Amino acid sequence: MAIDERLSADARIRLGDRVVVTATPGAPGDTVIVGAIVRRRADPAEIARGEYRVRLHLGQLQTLLGYGDRVDRFAVATPSPTATSDAIARINDAAFGFRAHRSADIAVETSTTFAVVSRFHRAIGVITVVASAIFLLCIMLLKVEERRRDVAALRLMGISARTIVRSVVLEAVAIAVLGSIAGVGVGALASAIVNRHYQGVYRTPLKFSIVTGDIVLLAVALSLTLGLAAGWLAARRLVRTPPLALFGR
């Protein structure tokens, strides 16, 4: 038989060990040899399930369960979507009392909870981005306000407002790029820590946090866009003020 890796670790069962399989503790049963240790799949639907899994030959399973020739459910492989539809129709029309479903439909039905969690996380992400944009704009305004005298001196020296705005925007973009690099690094590190912790807790290969290329591109694009907008707004606000007013006169 083949056993789950959780059962192997908890019961200290190794390959080649002999175990007795019985439906009732203490009752006589079949002695079988452990021929394989099966690793858990990366399936979100199996995370909260703490039961062990054992794979037996069909004859052993029938004897153990006492079901005879009955089954609760079984899977049928088909060569094409058309054959799948035909098989579903023929099975459902064969008799009353059981129902055939596509495996994809069952996966969607069992993943409803995870879809809700995904939408919840997306909403949190949108709120975080909006709040970050407001915070970034405030920081840029404060940083540019601290350079009032420098900007006033440049204006009195004959430097055009366009040049000053351009320099401030370039500085904001450079800061956004550095912030994006740092953010991607922090995100990758946090993702690795989360995966290492929860994979150990649930003993599953499932990845709980993933930093994908699409996420990185979206984060960098948002950072550059928000940095560019914040720098431009802050610089435009400052260059519109007369130079002497910037000096406090």
Q: What does this molecule look like?
A:
Helix 5 (112-145) runs parallel beside helix 8 and helix 7 (161-202) runs antiparallel to helix 8 (213-239). The chain has a three-stranded mixed beta sheet. Strands 2-3 form a two-stranded antiparallel sheet. By secondary structure, the protein is mainly alpha-helical. The chain starts with a strand and ends with a helix. The chain is 61% helix and 6% strand.
Please give the share of residues in helix. 55-70%
Bulk shape: elongated
Largest sheet: 3 strands, mixed
The total strand number stands at 5
Radius of gyration: 32 Å
Binned strand content: 5-15%
- Briefly note the structural class of the backbone: mainly alpha
Written as H for each helix and E for each strand, in order along the chain, the element string is EHEEEEHHHHHHHH
Instruction: State mean pLDDT (0 to 100 scale).
Output: 80
Strand order of the largest sheet: 4-1-5
CA-CA gap between termini = 89 Å
Q: Quickly count the helices.
A: 9
Low-confidence stretches: none
List the helices and strands and how they pair.
Elements: E1 2-4, H1 5-11, E2 18-21, E3 30-33, E4 36-38, E5 54-55, H2 58-65, H3 81-94, H4 103-110, H5 112-145, H6 148-156, H7 161-202, H8 213-239, H9 243-246
Parallel strand pairs: 1-4
Antiparallel strand pairs: 1-5, 2-3
Helix pairs in contact: 5-8, 7-8
